Amino acid sequence: MKKLSKSSELLWIMGTVFVALGVSICSKANLGVSMIAAPAFVISEALINVWSGFTVGVVEYVFQGVLLVILFIIIRKFNVKYLFAFAVAVVYGYVLNFFIWALRGVEFNEVWVRWVMLIVGDTITALGVASFFRTTYPLQVYELFVSKTAYKFEVSINRVKSIFDISLLIVSIILALTLFGDVTTFDWSTIYYNSFHSIGLGTILTTLINSPLIALTGKVIDKIFDNKPLFEKMEKALLIK
To answer: How far is it, in rounded angstroms, from Cα 171 to Cα 137?
Structure first.
């Protein structure tokens, strides 16, 4: 099979679109979104009644902006190119809002359909992440935070990623239990078919299958796309070292 040549830019666009679409589908399944996406969904749900502008997409890039500030404090270094990661987060936030809006009338009523659609959403998200990782254009703040923290402290990036993911999960659970004042209404008997403020069994399943799905979809991408850039000068200008 002949690969699609010079497709780095296309892979970046695919990454943005597929991650946003996959997360939106997982959200509609109402079984729990991933630990990475959860903070934005929880915070948005808590604040949307205060101001309609607190959409998931807006909270998403604001949250990533806070992470970027924390990163600057941790590594004690400011690089203007790091702001490209925040710009990517803003673009992603509005694409996410679009898909949430586009799917607003979609309902998955049967429990088995919800689980199937959660896996579909996870697969699409993994395809997007795998696409992102095959381009040297700026990624979102999440990936930048993990890579630069690992480099700063000379620790395995996989170890930092694990700590980072667990930390976001803990933060999400704390937010879900404290922001709404309804923790006493939580019912363990419904956990297999209903999320509690975007946290549920689906969050755990997504955590377990995320890495294998990214690896699998990445192999498919490698057979189809040549990740060399079409605009080499622009890629070098945007490259975060």
So the answer is: 29
Tell me the CB-side half-sphere exposure of residue 142, using CA atoms within 13 A. 21
In angstroms, the CA 58 to CA 92 distance is 10
CA angle 195, 173, 209 (to 5 degrees): 65
240 token code pair = 């975060």
Other residues' Cβ atoms within 10 Å of the Cβ of residue 170: 11
Biggest distance spanned by C-alpha atoms of the chain: 58
Residue-wise pLDDT for 2-54, tens only, equals: 788 889 999 999 999 999 999 999 999 999 999 999 999 999 999 998 888 99
User: Residue with structure tokens 């004690």?
Assistant: 76
* pTM > 0.85: yes or no: yes
- Write the DSSP assignment of 144-199 as a string of letters: HHHHHHHHHHT--HHHHHHHHHHHHHHHHHHHHHHSSS-GGG--GGGTTT--BTTB
